[in-house]
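$ ./design --mode recover --in tokens.txt
reading tokens...
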């Protein structure tokens, strides 16, 4: 099996070459990823979908994260990576005309031997009817009202409350959430508000 190759960048997002995924994380090299937030408006509320990462994952097993995240392979366009990762992880077949590009953010996680430096391309995907078929990298999908995520971003909540996909109440602590500080409030929420106003 061919080892995954990623394009690597300097801190100003200038391409400087390629490296294996293992070397990228071992050496803390800057690379690109996608964050795809999935949303559905039901009952007058905007519901945001999250995945629970598989317990077999090497990084943050069992944690809750944005609906679909993943690496942009060398030579791959971020939009194509968003479509590919969404299907691999959640089973959702992205319709590109419903996929909105929200911008790029820098993230650094430096903890012990874990050195992750990412340029994350952020997308919002609007769904009429949530239809998930999670792959092996995902334990399950859950839905959380947008206002709950906003409170977490503002450090007003110690936990998140929502439902599983059967509608049963569900809650987890903020310590179980893969934080992407400010991303929802700065990029996702303004897009939701504009769409609601329209």
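writing sequence...
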């Amino acid at each position: 099996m061919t080892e995954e190759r990623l394009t690597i960048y300097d801190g100003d997002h200038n391409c400087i070459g390629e490296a294996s995924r293992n070397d990228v994380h071992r050496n803390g090299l800057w690379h690109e990823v996608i964050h795809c937030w999935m949303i559905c408006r039901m009952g007058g509320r905007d519901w945001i979908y999250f995945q629970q990462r598989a317990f077999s994952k090497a990084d943050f097993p069992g944690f809750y994260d944005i609906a679909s995240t993943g690496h942009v392979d060398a030579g791959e366009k971020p939009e194509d990576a968003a479509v590919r990762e969404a299907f691999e992880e959640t089973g959702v077949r992205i319709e590109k005309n419903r996929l909105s590009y929200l911008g790029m953010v820098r993230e650094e996680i430096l903890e012990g031997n874990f050195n992750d430096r990412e340029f994350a391309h952020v997308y919002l995907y609007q769904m009429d009817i949530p239809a998930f078929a999670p792959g092996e990298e995902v334990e399950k999908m859950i839905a959380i009202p947008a206002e709950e995520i906003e409170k977490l971003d503002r450090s007003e909540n110690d936990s998140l409350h929502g439902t599983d996909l059967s509608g049963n109440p569900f809650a987890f602590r903020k310590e179980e959430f893969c934080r992407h500080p400010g991303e929802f409030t700065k990029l996702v929420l303004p897009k939701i508000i504009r769409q609601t106003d329209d």
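exit 0
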